[in-house]
Amino acid sequence: MVYVRAVHVLIAGVLLYAPAPAASFGCPPPERLRRLLQATDNGEAPILLLPCCYDGLTARLVGLSGFNATFMTGFGVSGASGYPDAQLVSFNEMLSAANSVAEGLSSAALERAKYGDAKEGSQPIAIPCIADGDTGYGNAINVKRTVFGYARAGMAGIMIEDQVAPKRCGHVAGKSVVPFAEAVKRVQAACDASRIAALFSCGKGISRDEYEALFGQGAGPLILARTDSLVTDGFEDAIQRCIAFREVGCDMTFLEAPQSVAQMEEYCQRVSGPKLANMLEYGSTPILPPVELQKMGYTMAAYPLTLLSASIKAMKESLNLIKEGKPTYDKILSFSETKDVVGFTKYAKEEEHYKC
Ligand SMILES: *[C@@H]1O[C@H](CO)[C@@H](O)[C@H](O)[C@H]1NC(C)=O
Predict the structure, then answer these.
(1) pLDDT digits over 13-66, tens only?
(2) Are 172 and 164 within 8 A, CB to CB?
(3) Is the entire prediction scored with pTM above 0.85?
(4) Separation of 325 CA from ligand 1 center, angstroms?
(5) Which of 72, 128, 174, 349 is most open to solvent, judged by the fewest CB atoms within 10 Å of its CB?
(6) Does domain 29-325 have CATH number 3.20.20.60?
(7) Cβ 37 under 6 angstroms from ligand 1
């Protein structure tokens, strides 16, 4: 029975190759993410929108809203833990958040396929998530442990950046980065931990043989290499870092906090491979419509703060109403909508199904 199911998932994955919606890809999360990136870069799909999540609830909301992928934001995990994004949250807390995110994405996928608006007979497959791995929480060996931990939590991609630990949000003052060569080694360690696929393309005797050797081809998470060096060492240094990250085999790059459209365009022209635009409202980068970002050459547009900030706003307004003794109905959902979002509707149906 299990075998038959596995074969079905495999067949579905083969039949519904690249242009099909993400929810139908019956293959490991990294492979699904890779196909999404390829579809966008081939012009077959719109830019990949990544509304960022940070816990089970926000992951469920993104999954239930029909997005094709998501990103677990360290800013959000920190914020929801009551801390600023300055690496006060440890790797284990991040990993625990990644597990909650994975569960939220799975429950959303099951719910959509069984009771929701997903197409008839579609596979209940969770959308892929890129997890924020910050600095990797130590040296190159810590970076590898971070990649392994997130991969086991089901993350499709892992972001590693070149800030000095403790890092901070890319759009706040006081950043510093590790030297060029150390940054490249960090990314190389992440790539080594992840897989063998790029063995031939990156060459130079670099072995990327660990996760995939253990868990199978296509299972190694994609590596998103981020540089924060623009404000510390200048735009040219940031470009050179992205190029060097590509040379050691990273799958995607992220030049953090470009300050103008001209810088965004030049980055897209000079750096190969999938690229991420960070649409942090009120940050240092111009906020542009997805279509324009895609025209420039970006593959992904991340929205790191929107869910956190929107919910903080609604919570502050609700608190004020409570303080003033006023009704809060304008700020909140109906009780039945709230129950639905946290999964009570599905729970009731399941409970019925298993009744003796
Ligand atoms: C998901 O991918 C499909 C296929 O490329 C696309 O048509 C759709 O707009 C995407 N959904 C979102 C929310 O980006």
Answers:
(1) 333 333 444 444 578 899 999 999 999 999 999 999 999 999 999 999 999 999
(2) no
(3) yes
(4) 44
(5) 174
(6) yes
(7) no
